[in-house]
Amino acid sequence: MEDGGDGSGTTSSYAWQGFDHPTDSMLPGMKVGVDRRSGLNSTVTSWKSDDDPSPGTVHASMDPRGNPELYIYSGSKKIWRTGAWNGVRLSGSPDSLTYQGNFSFSFVNNGDETTYSYVISNKSIVSRLVLREADAVVQRTVWLWESSEWSVFWYAPKDPCDRYAACGPYGACDPNSSPLCGCLVPEPAFAPSNPGNWALRDGSQGCARRTALDCRNGTDGFVTVGNLKLPESENSAVDTGLDLVGCRAKCLMNCSCTAYAAANISGGGSGCIVWFSELVDIRSYVDDGQDLYVRVAAADIVPTPERYHKRKSATVAVIVSLLSALLLLSSGGCFLWRKKKRRRVMLGRIPTSFNDKSDVGTRDDDLDLPLFDFGTIAAATNQFSEENKLGEGGFGPVYKATLENGQEVGVKRLARTSIQGLEEFKNEVVLIAKLQHRNLVRLLGCCIQGEERMLVYEYMPNKSLDFFLFEKGKEALLDWQTRYQIISGIARGLLYLHQDSRLRIIHRDLKASNILLDKEMIPKISDFGMARIFGGDETDFNTRRVVGTYGYMSPEYAMDGIFSVKSDVFSFGVLVLEVVSGKKNRGVYSYSHHVNLLSHAWSLWREGKSMQLVDESIGYSYPTNEVLRCIK
Q1: Catalytic site residue 509?
Q2: DSSP 3-state of 385
Q3: Which of 212, 233, 255, 260 could form a disulfide with 251 if both were Cys (CB 3.0 to 4.6 A apart)?
Q4: Residue 2 lies inside a defined structural domain of this protein
Q5: β-pairing verdict for 171-173 and 282-284
Q6: Which of 162, 509, 527, 615 is catalytic?
Q7: Residue 369's pLDDT is what?
Q8: pLDDT value at residue 470
Q9: Measured between alpha carbons, how far is residue 33 from residues 41, 103, 450, 479 in Å?
Q10: Do residues 613 and 601 make contact, with C-beta atoms less than 8 angstroms apart?
Q11: Where do transmembrane segments lie in this chain (predicted)?
């Protein structure tokens, strides 16, 4: 029934409808995506096998960020992206134009919902979309009346170039070329990031700019690349009121902008979409693709023959080149040695040997971190403008910054009035500089100039976990698969701190706001200002200075100042319950007469009602065993 109810077209009287909760098939009239009014996030999930209807690992869901689009995942790994709706079709499915006489497609993106659906125009056709576990593909099948069987009419991904990010950042995949991967804009603008792997036909690491953009002088330009599947659009913005001329100007005004395109190709093209990060998951089509305007340095806009063709050189020229290279290497080596020495001297000014009043332990390490000039950071944050400000904590304000090479970073600036912040600064420099793990935020460097103390981190475009859990309307963006991925990532990061790193570290302030999320929603533990290094034979420690956040502290730490790895485990448990329930620990649950989430969860567990703890915005598409494992 194409109206999703009983065929009457009236759905408001139903408390629950099967059309709102698809399994492995998407039928005509079904919607996949986010309904912000009901908090429902409808996804399609494969069967484990043709004979086992229990949920598999392959699922299709909507990413409403930037210019929304649908993805197929296998577990947490992206397999295929539909591309954004361009007013006519999904940009990653140009062949849908060939059968639009039989099918009608709809994409709705407004304050109430972000959904995709289809109906069958030809009533003699019976069709469905099916997600398969075995090969992680979506198939459009049609019913053949004569033979009484389903026939595959269309499927995706269908070739190597359909696979997500096959050619990496700034790479473009062409199924009709050999090798498949090439740079989106050829040399001199871009070159393979790893030429060795490129020669072996592994282009997964993509391409990199040869010439840095020069945003300040306004000399950058654009190269038009046609017939493309437009890049992944989670870090993009759409302005429907601009034409391409205005879109170009908008991109040039933002130093983070890397490309632009028409958002709607119907009626000759209108609207504007701009990208603010690396361009990923691009492929070419023979026809019916879209034009992408890629930002490049002025020197790379008009390529000269000398740049594209190697010429034979005379022996004298070779000798001159070799001598010049040797001179440059000698000068460069001397410069790097002096720079490194200066870096060590400047970092030596940070008092890394802490006194007995501090809980961080005693260390006197020679830290070799990149140093950023204050003027560079000031320019990158637009003079620490309010528009660039991401938030503020006990340490001081945090800013988004864009460096001269286009890299986006986060900057924590120590507030002069924060005594605790100075200790946190020392602690973070000592600890994070020596830690490397996928689930820990990465310290890129620091700024130490006069009274200024700043830490420069990798930028996390999806902010922090509490933003998605506790901001009204945002919780629907976290389906169960994403939540479970976040929980698992935090656990891996914590295990690294406690057991696997060369320093055994207790974080002491693990909470939702200290879990940052990258563009893939991978969690990163941050804020090590209150962390403590443990010796190999130490199991617990007592302090008179209790730091952290009440609600996440273990009882023995909050009351007696005793902390150990168990303190972090307690905080992690609170955090897991918050992720599962979408509720803060320190709340009043009047319906169960409990004053916090822990006692409420314990009460439900004893009554055998643990599943009532699950956030309603997740819906019902989740493996019960995974949820119970988290609650236990």
Answers
A1: yes
A2: coil
A3: 260
A4: no
A5: parallel
A6: 509
A7: 73
A8: 87
A9: 6, 19, 51, 11
A10: yes
A11: 314-337
**Domain end call among 404, 424, 458:** 458
Task: Report how far residue 416's alpha carbon sits from residue 137's, in angstroms, rounded to the nearest whole number.
Answer: 56
The CB-based long-range contact list for 338-344 (8 Å cut-off, 24+ gap) reads 340/368, 343/368, 343/369, 343/370, 343/371, 344/368
Mean per-residue pLDDT of the chain:
80
518 and 462 in contact (C-beta within 8 Å)? yes
Q: Do residues 94 and 119 share a domain?
A: yes
- Residue 535 has a pLDDT of 62
| pLDDT-derived band at 419, boundaries 50, 70, 90 | very low
- Per-residue model confidence (pLDDT) at position 265: 86
Q: Which residues in 31-45 are b (16+ Cβ under 10 Å) and which e?
A: bbbbbbeebbbbbbb
CB 142 within 8 Å of CB 153: yes
Tokens 């497609």 found at: 105
User: What is the domain extent for residue 414?
Assistant: 335-458
Please list the alpha-helical segments (H only) found in 116-243: 195-199
Instruction: Show the tokens assigned to 327.
Output: 């001179």
- 275: confidence class by pLDDT, cuts 50, 70, 90: very high
Same domain, 444 and 491: no
Beta bridge mates, 80: 72
**b/e burial code for range 232-246 (CB count within 10 A of at least 16 → b):** bbbbbbbeeebebee
Query: Do 93 and 77 form a contact (C-beta atoms < 8 A)?
Result: no
pLDDT of 235 reads 87
Q: What is the pLDDT of residue 15?
A: 46
Nearest 5 degrees, angle CA 394-CA 395-CA 400? 115
In a shared domain, residues 23 and 149: yes
The proportion of the chain whose per-residue pLDDT surpasses 90, expressed as a percent, equals 38
Helical segments of 445-540, H only: 465-470, 480-495
Lookup result for tokens 């992720």: 579
Residues 109, 275: Cα–Cα separation, whole Å:
19
CA distance 156 to 137: 6
505 domain residue, yes or no: yes
Last residue of a domain, one of 247, 281, 303: 303
Confidence band (pLDDT; 50, 70, 90) for 353?
very low
CA–CA dist 369, 435 (Å, integer): 12
Give the domain CATH number at 396: 3.30.200.20
pTM, rounded to two decimals: 0.49
- Between 19-33, 49-63, 268-282, 305-319, the lowest mean confidence (pLDDT) is in 305-319
Residues with Cβ within 8 Å of 328's Cβ and at least 6 positions away in sequence, in order, are none
CA–CA separation, 62 and 355 (whole Å): 52
18-76 pLDDT, tens digit per residue, is 556 688 999 999 999 999 888 888 999 999 998 899 999 999 999 998 899 999 999 99
Distance CA 491, CA 497 (A): 10
Domain count, the chain: 4
Quick one: 475 and 612 in the same domain? yes
310 has pLDDT over 90: no
Q: Is residue 310 part of a domain?
A: no
DSSP for residue 264? B
pLDDT > 70 in the chain, percent: 80
Report yes or no on 7 lying in a domain.
no
In DSSP notation, 276-342 reads -S---SEEE-SSS-EEEEEEE-GGGTS--HHHHS-----HHHHHHHHHHHHHHHHHHHHHHHHHHHH
